Amino acid sequence: MEKRISTTQLRVAKRVASIVAGNLAKRKKAEQQIKKWTDEFNRQENIILNYEAGLMADVGLRSEQIVTRVIEPTGKLDKNGKELKQTKYIINDNVRFDSDTKEYVVTINDDGDKEVAPIKDENDNEGMPVETTEQVVEELAEESVTEPEVEEPEVIEEQHVETFEEMFSN
Predict the structure, then answer these.
(1) How many folded domains does the chain comprise?
(2) What percent of the chain has a predicted confidence (pLDDT) above 70?
(3) Is residue 22 part of a domain?
């Protein structure tokens, strides 16, 4: 296919190209950033899915469908004067406790209300809901705390290093 253009049309094309050159560079840079952030998003999503694999296999839901992370100020300050904050994991509104069956029931609003299989509460012996999220976080922290292996530091012979005064006292 051939397309014939006049010299005037060629001049117009050159002028338009010079006008949009900066925009083309910005578009290319944005395209690279989108690719970079898409790769980062996919990497983070894979990490999340690996951690949530057990929950997904057992319950069929992601953690964000069951609980929400809330960071609240405590009103206290640390030694540097920064305000201390407390992280809580609050049960979402779509999760309710069925006291008859002693299970949590999650309702998902996709194409209408659809109840999901109940989640058994295995943290509590009586099947009652745990009073606060703080207790759950503390229980999980106690279970998952492991002491890292600490290697013995290598002993290095002490050597005398000349001070500035000793170097120039001659």
Answers:
(1) 1
(2) 64
(3) yes
